[in-house]
Write a structure and sequence with these properties.
By secondary structure, the chain is mostly helical. It has 8 helices and no strands. The chain is globular and about 55 Å long.
Amino acid sequence: MLWLIFMLGAGHGLQPDHAAAAATLAARRGIPAWLAALRLAAGHCAALATLTLLVVAFPALKAPWLERWTSILGAASLVFVGGLLLWHVWNHEDAHHQVRSGSIEQVGLGWLLGLSGARAAALILPIAGGNDVFAPLMAYGFGVSGGILIASGGLDVLRALLVGRLSTRWLDGALGLSSVLTGCWLLFSAA
């Protein structure tokens, strides 16, 4: 059963909002996408753990309004980070001249996106059955982390292939725009 939960998490981690967030953060900070993805995944797992434990402790939190508002919060944060990257591109700021520390920002965005996984946290418990909450949560979290790392590793390869052909400003602009558009799509689907 844990293998199934792991695979559900991996499928969730491969969704485009995670790849857009990791790539945008990587471009904004001038670091490899896999490193931003690792930090994003840590925040995402922390939020899922928090939500799962809260849902276990307070079953009334399974309310649909919680899922809607956490989805809106996660999507809005994706729009915000993409907008910041577009701002840097527009103002001709190169990612290599920026401060390279951004782990708090990356873990924080992962946490906000993880909050939008309220539905996943509520679904993990019935699938697992029994009183053990920790093992299914860890299986799902490692699956999500693996999916995010695979998606952002692919983006690192794509970026390496395109760097000689396009300027990094164009690439960073495209990543920022994809993050904003993905966040807007998620906002409209949550409303």
